[in-house]
Design goal:
The protein is of the alpha+beta class and 163 residues long. 19% of the residues lie in helices and 37% in strands. Residues 1-40 and 48-59 have low confidence and may be disordered.
Length: 163
């Protein structure tokens, strides 16, 4: 996991320690909008349709969600938005190589971890990073609905379901 969690500032510290941080909303929103606009312009020039906002549910998905949107995916990095309906969860699992950096879009939501045990509640705008190999599960607070983006990298993605 070369380079993950070694950045400076709150984001790097969160990735290194698995802690929550509050990004500067205005700056983060502006940067993401600029990146998305450039991506769309590149797609239009290349003649490829923009499928970044389409709902994608891979047939091999190991759990059910209300909605799954894959925004970007490369062999070493992927960005997905998941919406969990009331009662749904991303079950206990871990990843061999990737850190999950979770951005709460609609909440509240809960991330539970093991090794060490922990529980973090996030509201819209808050972020939490889960290092590779750390068991975790995600659900809405009090089994409610939630929506979050998850940036997974750097490294090949895997999903190791745990009990």
């Amino acid at each position: 996991m070369r380079g993950a969690g070694k950045g400076r500032g709150a984001a790097g510290e969160a990735a290194r320690t698995g802690s929550a941080f509050q990004p500067d909303g205005a700056a983060a929103s502006g940067q993401m909008g600029e990146i998305n606009m450039r991506k769309r312009e590149d797609l239009e020039r290349s003649g490829h349709p923009d499928r970044s906002q389409e709902e994608v549910e891979p047939p091999s998905a190991p759990y059910t969600v209300e909605k799954r949107e894959v925004l970007a995916q490369t062999p070493d990095l992927r960005m997905t938005i998941l919406t969990l309906a009331s009662g749904q969860e991303v079950p206990w699992h871990c990843h061999t190589h990737v850190t999950d950096t979770t951005f709460c879009l609609e909440g509240p939501m809960v991330i539970e971890t093991r090794e060490p045990e922990g529980r973090v509640e996030l509201t819209a705008g808050q972020t939490y990073a889960i290092p590779a190999r750390r068991p975790h599960r995600v659900h809405g607070k009090d089994n409610g609905r939630c929506k979050f983006a998850v940036l997974q990298g750097v490294g090949p993605y895997d999903f190791k379901r745990l009990r």
